[in-house]
Amino acid sequence: MTRKKFSGLISVAALAGALLMGGTATAEDKVGFIYVGPIGDHGWTYRHELGRQAVQEEFGDKVKTSFVESVKESSSEPVIRQMAADGYKLIFTTSFGFMNPTLKVAKQFPDVKFEHATGYKRADNVSTYSARFYEGRYVVGKIAGKMTKSNVIGYIGSFPIPEVVRGINAMTLAARSVNPDVTVKVAWVNTWYDPGKESDAAKALIDQGADIILQHTDSPAPLQVAENRGVWAVGQASDMAKFAPKAQLTAIIDNWDGYYIDRTRAVLDGTWKSQDVWGGFKSGMVELAPYNEAIPEDVVALAQETRKGIEDGSILPFAGPFNKQDGSVGAAEGSALDDGTLLGMNWYVEGVEGQLPK
Amino acid sequence: MSGFDWIVPVILTIITAATPLVFAGIGELVTEKSGVLNLGVEGMMLVGAVSGFITALVTGNYFLAVAAAALAGAVMAFLFGVLTLSLMANQVATGLSLTLFGVGLSALMGQEFVGEPVSALGKLDIVGLSDLPFIGPILFAQDALVYLSFVMVALVSWFLYKTKAGLILRAVGDSHNAAHSIGYPVIAIRYLAVMFGGAMSGIGGAYLSLAYTPMWAENMTAGRGWIALALIVFATWKPGLVLVGAYMFGGITILQLHAQAAGLNVPSQILSMLPYLATVLVLVLISKDESRIRKHAPACIGKIFHPAA
């Protein structure tokens, strides 16, 4: 999941920041964070920043945390290297595009531990971590299936990559499990972030009969549209209720706090090992914002039950039987898709309209 | 959906998508007609968007907000003027820097305001007419800025082609030496044209942050400034065609989203690039027809004016 934020603050400024904060060497262990966007983006980077604050709070004087924000993916290498050279013990690089720079710097600093978000390349001192946001979408799908009156759910897609397709499919399977008449319309906007275009897409979907809007894009604009038009919507990455107090059913929230604390502790204890984590509800990486009070009690109960089922493993979002959009078998009765299939998912399930762009 | 019910909402969405382009386009048109190429439209729009948003949030007064946006855009443009007109810096390089500067400056100004919602600019219902079927909601129930965008196009068209001042402005754009030799203050006129362009870009940006998606988020113009620049070439520097082009560019975006939502199999990536393809096509076509360029394109565009001693 790459996050492209075209920030005006270019790496020069970021590098200067890194130099400044590396100035004082103390006995405490230093933990660094590199962000692709500004900490005030109200979404992706903001959630990572909250994770950093949680680490600082947990360990108090024992660690010193710092961050560099708005680091362009293409020029991140010197920023990462500067941190490593300044004696940071653990560095989190929090965007897909930081993958190769992280690996490159990690090779030069074998004693520094690196944690790279959403990537797939690892080394002895580089771990990767990501979150199973589709679990959140599955719970949201149950709510959406129950709440829709028009039986049409609108979904704003960014780019047709497995991460996004997986979310659409998980939501569709859940919605149709409680309401087989549901169809899902998808509008691809070809951007992670363009408030205007995202709101246009939301309007188009609503005009085509959707009464619930989901999004896999970063701005709260679609929620504003939903609020104005009197339909439901689901927030993305963080709680967006203040943009749509009436319309937001819930929001799928990224929560890195626990993971960041665990990994920092592992470094302090000397137990840190390279690993690959793909955590969901159970790990705490995926959370849901408070349910809208307008959701009937039985639907809230269903959502809670579903979430619990996913946490204890009794519910697998991609368990069969279900069909792909073309009518072929997606997963047979009694089987469920494995992680490999999920990571490469490039087809719609039955119930999604339109053709997946290739 | 049955019948033609779907047409009205589609047109309404197209209007909101086109309005920022109309403002930025018509402003930059005047700038270019005076012989100056300002590529900083995107940056001026962003600074306008954030200034308008902050003013609306703090004062609650949308008139002030739009005025602040226009002023902010004009100040940015003035800066551009100082560099290119007085200090004679290269216009292309300065314009590009102005965009980069605007992106950063607006982010800095808006830092404290990310995630603050404001209520959308109100619609002006024209009593009696807004209830008309079909044309009512389209023609008579828009927000003030939409009406203003049409007024500005008409005004600019009238100014450029029906007034003496407009004739002088075009003369400056077509031959600054000739205009200078008969005593017109080339630099002063260009300053005014550049600042008018900035003010319009600022209002275009404010339309985004106040009406289109009433909020502030970094880089929320997402490339619309560049579309506005392409639009002017597409319109072969004619005000009326800027309007047509803006609605066409907006319309393509909206229609492709509707087509997708309706489940039609449209390649969204190709439709996303259609506005630019259309611009390239027009460029090719007008390059073939010299007389059309000569008639409307300002001959001195981008050229630095050195006042003859």
Report on this structure.
The complex is a heterodimer of chains A (358) and B (309). Chain A has 358 residues and is of the alpha/beta class. Helix content of chain A is 37%, strand content 19%. Chain A folds into two domains: 11-131, Rossmann fold, CATH 3.40.50.2300; 139-251 and 288-343, Response regulator (Rossmann fold, 3-Layer(aba) Sandwich). Chain A is built from eleven helices and 14 strands. Chain A has a six-stranded parallel beta sheet with strand order 2-1-3-4-5-11, sandwiched between helices. In chain A, α3 (77-85) packs parallel to α4 (99-108). The longest helix of chain A has 17 residues, at 162-178. With 309 residues, chain B is mainly α. Chain B has a single domain (7-296), classed as Orthogonal Bundle (ABC transporter involved in vitamin B12 uptake, BtuC). Chain B is 72% helix and 0% strand. Chain B is built from 13 helices and no strands. Chain B has helices at 7-33, 41-59, 62-86, 91-110, 135-139, 144-162, 164-174, 176-181, 186-212, 224-234, 239-261, 268-288, 290-296. In chain B, α3 (62-86) packs antiparallel against α4 and α6 packs across α7. The termini of chain B are far apart. The chains are: A alpha/beta (358), B mainly alpha (309).
Topology of this structure?
The complex is a heterodimer of chains A (358) and B (309).
Chain A: H1 11-21, E1 29-34, H2 44-59, E2 63-68, H3 77-85, E3 90-93, H4 99-108, E4 113-117, E5 126-131, H5 133-147, E6 152-157, H6 162-178, E7 183-188, H7 195-207, E8 212-215, H8 221-229, E9 232-237, E10 248-254, H9 257-269, E11 276-279, E12 286-288, H10 297-312, E13 322-323, E14 329-331, H11 339-343
Parallel strand pairs in A: 1-2, 1-3, 3-4, 4-5, 5-11, 6-7, 6-8, 8-9, 9-10
Antiparallel strand pairs in A: 10-12, 13-14
Chain B: H1 7-33, H2 41-59, H3 62-86, H4 91-110, H5 135-139, H6 144-162, H7 164-174, H8 176-181, H9 186-212, H10 224-234, H11 239-261, H12 268-288, H13 290-296
Helix pairs in contact in B: 1-6, 1-9, 1-10, 1-11, 2-3, 2-4, 2-9, 2-10, 3-4, 3-9, 6-7, 6-11, 10-11, 10-12, 11-12
